[in-house]
Design a protein that fits this description.
Layout: H1 2-15, H2 18-25, E1 29-30, H3 33-45, H4 48-57, E2 58-62, E3 67-71, E4 79-83, H5 89-100, H6 113-130, H7 139-158, E5 159-162, E6 174-177, E7 183-184, H8 196-203, H9 206-213
Parallel strand pairs: 1-2, 2-4
Antiparallel strand pairs: 3-4, 5-6, 6-7
Helix pairs in contact: 2-3, 3-5, 5-6, 6-7
Length: 217
């Protein structure tokens, strides 16, 4: 029994060593030596559960200006992490955080990308920081997000939900532009490119919103 415990301890020590981590990652690394070293050092610092996720689900490659995480469901390693050859440990940890948190690049519409980007970047920063790395939101993203919020607030004054427009049926409210009296359905796109459903969600009671977007349920 003591010998078995000793063997398990030795195995654990090896798995936590640089050589052990590199061995577990060797089939998923397609990067230069310096970046390879940074990836190994980051993985060494991760909690065991996250480390196992990286071993089994992530592959790494390099590209100029890289810093992206893509979901590729058809492959065994479903997360492809693309990094610049000069990416430091903080950037590596940030991109691993995106994969760990399940951030897929499948946002529903172009208008929502700033909000989606802000949300997922903020979450990845917080996760990487929790692992002991430095990760902060880029000022440009914060500024873009604040501008979107400003536009949303302005739009909230421009549109109303009403049952008194001519196109209303069965007493269900419709989104109306108070300046032009133009009505928009849930599936329509507003003149500025915003999906109308975003304003429906902003202005409607949650139960009414669900009924409007899922009329057959």
């Amino acid at each position: 029994m003591a010998k078995k415990d000793e063997q398990l301890e030795q195995l654990e020590q090896w798995e936590n060593s640089i050589d052990g981590i590199y061995d577990n990652l060797s089939n998923s690394l397609a990067v230069g030596r310096d970046l390879e070293h940074n990836i190994v050092m980051v993985v060494k610092k991760l909690p065991q559960k996250v480390r196992s996720f990286v071993y089994n689900k992530c592959a790494f490659t390099s590209a100029n200006g890289g810093g992206h995480t893509l979901c590729q469901k058809t492959l065994r390693r479903s997360w492809l992490i693309i990094l610049d050859d000069k990416a430091d440990k903080d950037i590596v940890a940030h991109e691993i955080a995106h994969a760990w948190l399940g951030h897929k690049l499948d946002f529903p519409d172009a208008r929502a990308t700033t909000e989606w980007g802000y949300k997922t970047e903020k979450e990845a920063c917080e996760q990487a920081t929790a692992w002991g790395f430095k990760s902060e939101l880029e000022p440009e993203l914060i500024e873009a997000y604040e501008e979107v919020l400003k536009q949303r607030r302005a739009m909230g004054k421009k549109y109303i939900l009403t049952t008194e427009h001519a196109v209303c049926t069965h007493g269900k409210p419709v989104l109306v532009d108070t300046e032009t009296n133009e009505a928009y359905g849930v599936g329509d796109i507003l003149p500025d490119g915003t999906p109308a459903r975003i304003m429906y969600k902003k202005l409607a009671h949650p139960d009414i919103y669900e009924e409007l977007i899922n009329p057959d349920e």
